[in-house]
């Protein structure tokens, strides 16, 4: 019998297309995308882009050549996050081994749920998780790869809730007292999203005050956390989850893990560390002190913890959640589907780890990290972290030498938050409309750089401080000349404001 | 200044590695993986595989050649889900354009949250969602791509809860009465996982009886659904969510959408259709009748609905959730983070759709579907669906001609559930140990095929029926000779049992 007909299903044609498309992808989305002589982005208004891209979907298929042109166009009008001058997000740059791992993952197209269909990846995930736990300082425990940091935080919150009140899994929240979550006011918004999604409610998230510019003393933080716990209890709520942030989204600040741990321990509250952004410091001997305290948690029965390791530089859209307790993750999430997790298989069925997940099919996320690690080793990963810190230091020193640049706070990590004060506003800090005018500077400079395509960086207001830029320094393709260019370009784009 | 040092970050070396690795991936994970003369899997016991793969992670990096060998080994020992004789999961086969879209997605490495960093993909997602809504029969509405069907179901349940009781978002479940979910006893286990995760509890999921072998009348189902709703209310619970399954996981059966809609409408309950498996029938004029009733729901204010379109053949790990209501998704999930969704941008900020999601960074999932659609058109997609139905019919007819094969139920979709009764058990249906012996047949045949590497298919018990095989027919690489081979091979592997 003939193979099923249908355009694109013939193997030889399909493989030819894939090969030719790969060349286009390599040229447009990798080679040119990492070249400083090329633009970071090719800005088009939405209306113009809609027309240019001819996005509408019809009844009939297109030719091989038309489709290749589409691949080229998509790359052309997409933002080059691999570019050394892309500073807009908490991801940037390309790791070639990680990207190879992603391609292989996509080609093999399996799901992480059983040893039967993912033998290599079930074992690989286990190795990666064990290795990361040992770096954190935990001799045993559990873990899982999640589709992003927000989902990781939800997992942690749900497992913590299950530990405190296992009946919630079957009976819902109606049979337990109101629950309270604690997190700093500068923590990621996923804490609120998690509380909303899990049925706990955003108003049951208590925001703890951070110390002015995140001083190393963190006195105010610790005091306010204790006060908020007492307050929540006095209102009849049960504190069950304290989130500590290791690397805040905007400022890259580290909460005082040691102090928070003391308070959690004393109150019997689950401590979670959201290290979605700062987690990569576990690789660096020099900078690991920022998460000092994590290694203390050796009693998984009375004080289980969770620790989310994100980013790890160049590791987009996958996050790793570690638990100090060995079995809670499975107990909390299992549904024992008999069509998938049969109990009469011929191999060790404890390798069918899919029931730990809230997902059914789960993408393979471990390979990209594993292959990168095999390629450069833990020392290579540590070097990247150390280099990023050193480049950040270089950038801050250069910035301070220039007139008109003002840091919002001294960086602890690789985020540098600063204002650019244009000549017309310098020395006018006491004018009544100074803040209002300053607030408008960053958006205009941003618009200009995007339309020019020279670089991209984010800005935001925070806690009463008007719009400032957030520079993030993490791409392995980055060098000092890119940082010098950045400062020059801000001046070029903003000096007339 | 020199570019940051660190193994693997040099562009020319990196691109060379990527190119060579691509050749290996194309050969091992695509070309050989779709060749019927090659094995579907190369079974190794976990202990053996651990040693073979040398998975442990160390301090130092490896050479280019060693890493290429690793890529080859990973492909070699991974299951070939692209193989025409892989029938083990609800995904199978390769679509070359979709795979190209995946590669491009990985290379561009952006996040779907803002127009600023994903201009092409924000517009593209909108086009795909609109097109799918129009196929379902909805003139307006909303939607989102989710990391899998289980997460889609959670989204739907959360949005339905928000529609019924918006205060849950802020105050949690303590301020509302106990909520009740309704779904068939053969629906996917993610309904229970969703209820657990959202704080509703698995015991508040009421399982509705399905009709014997899913007859087209569905009388028992409709009656039991009404009875369960009355029962839940009498217990003080508030019914808020009815899930209808379009294509059950094991049998591929379709719930009676029209009847369920009548009941939902009458009771003012949100109706969700979990079409994660059967959703692709929307493309087929011939088979769309299986979801008849969906097009009725035109009142998004009083009767909002959600519809999850999954799989679409060869579309692994991404699912699409559609809503008939336009704004609920955003209202339910938004957290208004000012560092990401600035309100003073220079473009139409309604294009920053990331706050609809419970994730922060969200993988681009629309491109693989969009490129496949551009390549073969809606007609090509419809053909695939029709061919899969026709091949299923062929398979069932061939199966019935053979002694020892017995279908569990007549297929509605592309799942064929059947027992293989080995010669020693034929005619002994009334022996007291018949069921016990039959239950052991499928696991043994499965073990033998996996160790031989000739093919893979799933089995499971269901509702008192002992282990039977679930054949699924969906790969575009599949032809009739593969189906004949399948039946022959089951006989070869099971005739001595």
From TrEMBL, chains A, B:
Q: From what organism does this protein derive?
A: Pygocentrus nattereri (Red-bellied piranha)
What do we know about how this protein assembles, alone or with others? Homodimer.
Query: Is Transcription found in the keyword set?
Result: no
Read off the PANTHER family from this record. CYSTEINE SULFINIC ACID DECARBOXYLASE, GLUTAMATE DECARBOXYLASE-RELATED
Q: What is this protein called?
A: Cysteine sulfinic acid decarboxylase
The record's listing under InterPro entries reads: PyrdxlP-dep_de-COase (IPR002129), PyrdxlP-dep_Trfase (IPR015424), PyrdxlP-dep_Trfase_major (IPR015421)
A Pfam family matched in the record: Pyridoxal_deC
Q: Which GO terms describe its molecular function?
A: pyridoxal phosphate binding; sulfinoalanine decarboxylase activity
């Amino acid at each position: 019998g003939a193979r099923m007909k249908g355009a694109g299903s013939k193997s030889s044609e399909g493989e030819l297309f894939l090969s030719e498309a790969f060349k286009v992808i390599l040229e447009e989305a990798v080679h040119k995308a990492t070249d400083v002589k090329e633009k970071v982005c090719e800005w088009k208004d939405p209306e113009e882009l809609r027309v240019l891209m001819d996005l509408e979907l019809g009844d009939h298929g297109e030719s091989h050549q038309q489709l290749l042109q589409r691949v080229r166009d998509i790359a052309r009008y997409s933002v080059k996050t691999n570019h050394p001058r892309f500073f807009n997000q908490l991801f940037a740059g390309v790791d070639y081994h990680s990207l190879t791992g992603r391609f292989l993952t996509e080609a093999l197209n399996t799901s992480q749920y059983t040893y039967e269909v993912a033998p290599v990846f079930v074992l690989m995930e286990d190795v990666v998780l064990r290795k990361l736990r040992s770096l954190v300082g935990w001799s045993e425990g559990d873990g899982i790869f999640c589709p992003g940091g927000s989902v990781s935080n939800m997992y942690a919150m749900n497992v913590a809730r299950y530990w405190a009140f296992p009946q919630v899994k079957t009976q819902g929240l109606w049979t337990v007292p109101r629950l309270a979550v604690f997190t700093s006011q500068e923590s990621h918004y996923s804490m609120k999203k998690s509380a909303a999604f899990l049925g706990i409610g955003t108003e049951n998230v208590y925001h703890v005050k951070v110390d002015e510019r995140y001083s190393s003393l963190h006195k105010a933080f610790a005091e306010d956390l204790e006060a908020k716990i007492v307050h929540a209890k006095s209102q009849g709520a049960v504190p069950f989850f304290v989130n500590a942030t290791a690397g805040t989204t905007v400022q890259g600040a580290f909460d005082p893990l040691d102090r928070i741990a003391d308070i959690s321990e004393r109150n019997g509250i689950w401590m979670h560390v959201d290290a979605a952004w700062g987690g990569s410091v576990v690789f660096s001997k020099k900078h690991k002190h920022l998460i000092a305290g994590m290694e203390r948690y050796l009693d998984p029965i009375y004080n289980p913890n969770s620790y989310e390791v994100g980013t790890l530089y160049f590791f987009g859209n996958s996050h790793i959640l570690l638990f100090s307790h060995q079995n809670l993750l499975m107990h909390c999430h299992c549904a024992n589907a008999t069509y998938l997790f049969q109990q009469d298989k011929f191999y060790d069925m404890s390798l069918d780890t899919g029931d730990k997940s809230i997902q059914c099919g789960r993408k393979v996320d471990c390979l990209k990290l594993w292959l990168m690690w095999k390629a450069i080793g833990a020392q290579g990963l540590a070097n990247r972290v150390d280099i990023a810190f050193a480049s950040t230091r270089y950038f801050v020193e250069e910035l301070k030498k220039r007139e008109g640049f003002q840091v919002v706070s001294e960086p602890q990590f690789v985020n540098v938050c600063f204002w650019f004060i244009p000549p017309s506003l310098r020395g006018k800090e006491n004018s009544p409309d100074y803040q209002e005018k300053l607030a408008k500077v960053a958006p205009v400079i941003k618009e200009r750089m995007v339309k020019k395509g020279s670089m991209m960086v984010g800005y935001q207001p925070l806690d009463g401080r008007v719009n400032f830029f957030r520079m993030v320094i993490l791409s392995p393709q980055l060098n000092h000349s890119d940082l010098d260019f950045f400062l020059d370009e801000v001046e070029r784009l903003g000096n007339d404001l």
